[in-house]
């Protein structure tokens, strides 16, 4: 099991990262909560990781905090919630807000996330309520104000749409979400953040 990775950030195209570790490039899938706090390209990055092994692929997932990874691991233990859906949930809602939804039994709040239907939301509430009691208050990660590396607004918009599609939104829905954001001079990460916040309201 690869539990931690430290290297040079070579590429970031949500939800994928490419990290150089002593000459070996690792593809890492990360939630948007981690993307918001990434350093600039060619800088050193450290992520807490979880390796998912399947017959057809070995996928490495990376997280900026141990709380994010712990939440991811708790989610993938729920029947019907795979790694991709867990990543989507962590991208669309903060760990703090997710815990509030679970503890309050807020099915409507959970079903706003792509891939989470009513039955899945009910299952999450039933199976995670007792587990999350031990978590207490999870601090919400602060957003990074640093601009993304070398992206013109048009590219940032296209990257944001692509990232939302990769997270499970349908192309027309992803485009509509991005259109409501004033994308001028914003990085793709910030566009995604505002688009997801608008959906959650």
Question: How would you portray this structure in words?
Answer:
This protein is α+β, with helices and mostly antiparallel strands and 201 residues long. It has three domains: 4-63, Nucleic acid-binding proteins (OB fold (Dihydrolipoamide Acetyltransferase, E2P)); 68-132, DNA polymerase, domain 1 (Orthogonal Bundle), CATH 1.10.150; 153-200, Ubiquitin-associated (UBA) domain (Helicase, Ruva Protein, domain 3), CATH 1.10.8.10. Helix content is 45%, strand content 19%. It contains nine helices and five strands; from the N terminus they run E-E-E-H-E-E-H-H-H-H-H-H-H-H. It has helices at 32-35, 66-75, 83-92, 95-104, 107-111, 118-132, 153-166, 171-179, 188-200, and strands spanning 4-13, 16-21, 24-29, 44-53, 58-63. It has a five-stranded mixed barrel. A hairpin with a 2-residue loop joins strand 1 and strand 2 (16-21). Helix 7 crosses helix 9 (188-200). The longest helix is centred in the middle third of the chain and has 15 residues, at 118-132. It is globular. It starts with a strand and ends with a helix.
Name the helix and strand elements from N-terminus to C-terminus, one letter apiece. EEEHEEHHHHHHHH
**CATH topology label of the largest domain:** DNA polymerase, domain 1
* CATH homologous group name of the largest domain: 5' to 3' exonuclease, C-terminal subdomain
Total helices: the number is 9
Number of domains: 3
The CATH class of the largest domain turns out to be Mainly Alpha
Q: Can you give the helix content as a percent range?
A: 40-55%
Instruction: Please tell me what the overall shape is.
Output: globular
What strand line-up does the widest sheet have?
A: 1-2-3-5-4
Broad structural category: alpha+beta
The share of residues in extended strands comes to 15-25%
Number of strands: 5
- Quickly give the CATH architecture of the largest domain: Orthogonal Bundle
Radius of gyration: 16 Å
Largest sheet, in brief, is: 5 strands, mixed, barrel
The whole-number mean of residue pLDDT values reads: 81
For the terminal residues, how far apart are their CA atoms?
A: 38 Å
